[in-house]
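ok trying this again, last paste got cut off
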Amino acid sequence: MYSFDMTSEQKMLVDTVHRYAEKMLRAAYREAEESAAAPAGTIRTGWELGLLPAGIDAEYGGYGEYSALTSALYLEELGWGDVGISLHLLSPNLFALPVALFGDNEQKAAWLPRFTEADFPKATAALVEPVYQFDPNALATTAEREGDSYTIQGVKIYVPLAQNAEVFLVYAQEKNRTQAFIVPAETPGVQVAERVVMMGAHALPVYTVNFNGVTVPAGNRLGGARGIRMNRLLTVSRISAAALAVGQARAAYEYAVKYAKEREAFGEPIAHRQSIAFMLANMAIEIEGVRLQVWEAAWRYDNREDASKLAMLAKQAADKMVLEVTDNAVQVLGGHGYIREHPVELWLRNGRGFAMWDGLIIG
């Protein structure tokens, strides 16, 4: 069974990320939302924390190995700070971590060192498609083998930072299996279309990208002859997304508690009202419950157990919980919750997005 005590390294990492979230993400979230762009300095400082290199083997320039539990711990702090900027910061992970988990030796040696350098990498992934009831294991985008190359055909949506990306990790169906292909942005047939404006998380630019007969060498299929294990990758993604949702919900809960203690009506804080107190208590219970689900799924993944079911359940619980908690935070603030003077309206919009972001978050 997993321990509830963090290691000294984990505690130091969580403290560091929390300070970054408090001093930089909280200071920039409204500017980022209004301008629909993450401040370059905030991203640069976040990249310098070395969160991604910590999950890359030292052989390739990193200084650790991937741990889903450690990632879940720091992702909660990022979600507490700001979801939009955090999603921007985490976008290179969508390319690098699948390479670290499934790439062959040549692919790892060619690509992973680029993610341990000082500059923010211009790499992303294209998974989600503009279809009803999107299923990552039944993609409309196809990859057909033709001699020593693959031809990719399809449309992707919600592709983060696609406008400035230098390389994509494109997921496509090959013989009834989902595989991933490394596609340089300058490859003929890659067309970045319009930016998609989301309800929340405006600091993350996402785009529709067309892959019209894009041809890449067979060696660009991730994992070589073995390919990837999509369910394992989705397990990591769902744990990551659920952890980020816990952080967003925690931010909303803490803000609502502080407001309820300070706001007075009829001569006493509204926190003394039974309806408000019960609502706040239920918010805390739901957050703690989902956090435990996330930790258990992450622990089992790190111990090489099958965590796919637990990760799915944690993600579904987190999607429901974060929407309920952020909505309750708006209700606690009453009319103030609906105006931009307070952040809970933004957190509610962000909270609604987690159900749509399956596959867009890997930490």
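PB: full thing came through this time. The radius of gyration is 21 Å.
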